[in-house]
Design a protein that fits this description.
The protein is α/β, with parallel strands linked by helices.
Length: about 280
């Protein structure tokens, strides 16, 4: 069965060539670009990719463009690859072998090997991603860091280290902190219904650090592993702090809203009065 590779891009020239080189043996490569201003499209044309454009508007995450990009694939089987990922030859062989079977699942979770400061991070492996599926049975919510929804049977590929994405973020500390600000802004709407307080500010970062550094084996990665665990904790701190800020703002706005409603009701119930005077406002 034929497989289409779908890649969403925005100013991805720095890493795109390495990614495209790893997927040249697939049947089709679709690059969905969000109006890049660098040489991303020149690189894509050089590899004979099918190029489509998704209007960037004010989006700062890729999820809004996922469904459109997938819909542009010519084949039923789709492999979604990020512009900073490499597909191993073992993964390609595994996927084609899966599509040749009569009992092929409708979607496959694939492991991902993440690199930070040029080093493989044990703390994140296997980091399963649902990236291979039938085009007709998938819907990708426009929510940051979310998995697509696939209607059908799902399985996990073996985590043997060979069948995996190689994820080369190549982020500087500065770039990672900038992404933390953007990503946490987009995370907050997902969690606004939950209450966060001082305990969350203290324990969520601590838990994330201990999980990344001790439970997941980040200590094996030396200094990069320690820095990575600290950045994971910092991400949680910033996210919870923003949620606390939003909750406090809502509490400040609520009394003002209640007073406004009482004033409006008072005006309608004193139709014969020339002026409306409110001496006392009792709030529940």
């Amino acid at each position: 069965m034929a497989i289409s590779v779908v890649i969403n891009t925005y100013n991805a020239a720095k890493q795109l060539e390495r990614t495209l080189e790893s997927v040249t043996d697939f049947d089709e490569i679709v690059v969905c670009d969000m109006e890049s201003t660098d040489h991303t499209l020149d690189i894509a044309r050089g590899y004979g990719c099918k190029i489509v454009t998704f209007e960037r508007k004010d989006y700062n995450i890729v999820e809004h463009a996922r469904n459109f990009a997938i819909s542009q694939a010519s084949n039923e089987w789709v492999l979604v690859v990020d512009a900073d990922e490499v597909v191993t030859s073992e993964m390609r062989k595994y996927l084609y072998a899966q599509t040749a079977q009569e009992t092929t699942p409708d979607g496959i979770f694939l492991p991902r090997r993440n690199y930070f400061m040029g080093q493989f991070m044990h703390a994140l492996y296997p980091d399963y991603q649902l990236r291979f599926f039938r085009k007709s049975q998938v819907c990708w919510p426009a929510i940051i860091h979310t998995q697509p929804k696939v209607d059908g049977r799902l399985v996990h590929a073996p985590k043997n280290g060979m069948v995996a994405f190689e994820h080369y973020q190549d982020d500087s500390i500065k770039a990672r902190l900038q992404k933390t600000d953007i990503y946490t802004d987009n995370e907050c709407p997902k969690r606004k219904a939950r209450h966060f307080g001082t305990s969350s500010l203290v324990f969520r970062p601590i838990h994330r650090f201990l999980k990344a550094y001790l439970l997941k084996g980040g200590f094996r990665d030396g200094l990069p592993g320690f820095i990575f665990a600290c950045l994971e904790a910092y991400y949680q701190l910033i996210m919870v702090a923003k949620l606390c800020e939003q909750q406090k703002q809502l509490k400040v706005e609520e009394p003002t809203s209640k007073v406004s409603k009482i004033i409006v009701i008072s005006k309608f119930t004193t139709q014969n009065a020339q002026t409306v005077s409110i001496n006392h406002v009792a709030l529940p």
